Amino acid sequence: MTHPDTPLTPQNTHLALRILTTAKKHWFLIGLIAVFALVIFDWTGTLARAGILFKDNNGPSVMIFVIFLLSGMIIEVEQIRAGIRDVRATCAALGLIVLVSPVLALLLVLIPMETGMALGLFLVAVMPTTLSSGVVMTGQARGNMAHALFVTILSNCIAVGTIPVVLPLLLAGLDLDAGLFIDRAGIFITLLFLVLLPLVMGMGIKKAVPDMPLEWKKRFSMVNQCIVLGIVYMSLSGAREALVAGWGDLFIVLPLVVGFHLALLAASFGAARLLHIGRGRRESVIFMGAQKTLPLSVMLQITCFPQYGIALLVCVIHHIAHLMIDGFLAGKMGSE
Length: 336
Fold this sequence. Notes:
The chain is mostly helical.
């Protein structure tokens, strides 16, 4: 029997260092898992109530504003020029968001499943890219954040016109009757005040401090990743009741949404390879092309299809799953 005071062997020291290195590389993924576990398994509901309180008092909006303010202070002018000029990567990302994603959902629905699950998958498939996490992960993977921001703005603007057209086409086979309402003005106002305004402010600050140390930029990037964890915490808090109530369906929903996201990631990598979009450019195509925003899908489910509670579960579980998968992927790509 080994005495508890036995000194560490070289083998044990090496193992401990490997564990620490792996944890440091994938700390964002570990943080996502920890947030999920803490909120869901806190049976007192204290953490969820606190998260809902922040959420109901504009917590996510403030955090998204700060993310893009700091992003403006990180991004170089040349990155912006390169991102806007990169028509091939932009078309690839938008093609994945608007065309490939709905087609993949249609193929998956060929597998027999409940109407509510198919509805949830279709809601996810027609969504534009995320406002914050995709940009942050693109930076973490050492990609062009400016291009990721450009795709964010374009895809969310385009979604105003594409969702009312594409979603009814997908739902035609489900025999659902519901009117779709897209708050076009609301989306544009959100993009203006939560993305463009803080981005310009951040770029203005960066111009006023031209010799900003590289260490500051690294810290800003780290802060952005921590803020994304905060946004996930508030989203999970608001969805905790639905997640706990639908716990029995989790074992069906999880493979479905993971399979969908992995297929979309495979299509993103394939598009980057086919179009010869190399390192430094492909990251924004991969993360922006594969990630989907949650708030709009939840809003459509609640207002248009409230009788299909499992559709909400699909939207929420997909969001959590794709953040965890992409959190791992971003850490791996960033360390290459």
